[in-house]
User: What shape does this take?
Amino acid sequence: MKRSWFAYPYSLWMVIFTIAPMIFVVYFALTDTSGALSLSNMAAVGQETYLKILWRSLYLALICTVICLLLGYPAAYFLASKDFNKNQTLFVLILLPMWMNFLLRTYAMMSLMENQGIINTLLKAMGLEPVRMIGTEGAVLVGMVYNFLPFMVLPVHTSLKKMDQRVIEAAEDLGANPAQVFRRVTLPLSMPGVISGVTMVFMPAVTTFAISRLLGSGNFMMFGDLIDKQFLELNNWHFGSSLSLIMMALIIISISLLNKADPKGEGSAI
Assistant: This one.
């Protein structure tokens, strides 16, 4: 039996569930309801209303990515340090949310932040005024950071763990202080992991719809919500496919940047 035969089931799966749906998306995006070739759907994406939703999604996704980087890099740096090799408890705690269903995690955040939730209950018990969190951009942003933070920690941690420690020891032997070692050695060598983490956080953040729907109470429509509405509520597959093409273009650009920054896949967490 040839080894290549083992790839046939995977190739069939890719054709049926990846390539074929993409072909249908392109077809619907470039045709009208009669099936004739048309660019009207693509042109409609440029309307001011839809551009505002796109910019809002990009803005919140960018803030989420920056926060995840600021929180995730120090955590990954600590997890990859020599002093942490014998204690994996914190690493398991970071991975633990990824073992839970995405919607369950979001519902858990709702129970914390809703008007009669745990946080406001504690505030009332301390004699403080309750805070309105659900239905705000802040709640959506907190939910995005909570769900996507592990996707930043893992690739950065992988990149740091793969780093040759002899390079750091050489820099220290040459008289570099810890700040100089980090700035001139550790940070540049960990950039593949950073780029991978940024990509893994930014793309799901900009396309999310469950978080904004549940934690935003529908007050803040994001691009993923817009696509979901076109397909499931309005049954407008042509315009929904045009919006999906925009997301596909962002994904392709993101992957291209990742390949340039990390051509050997050194920052991959998988």
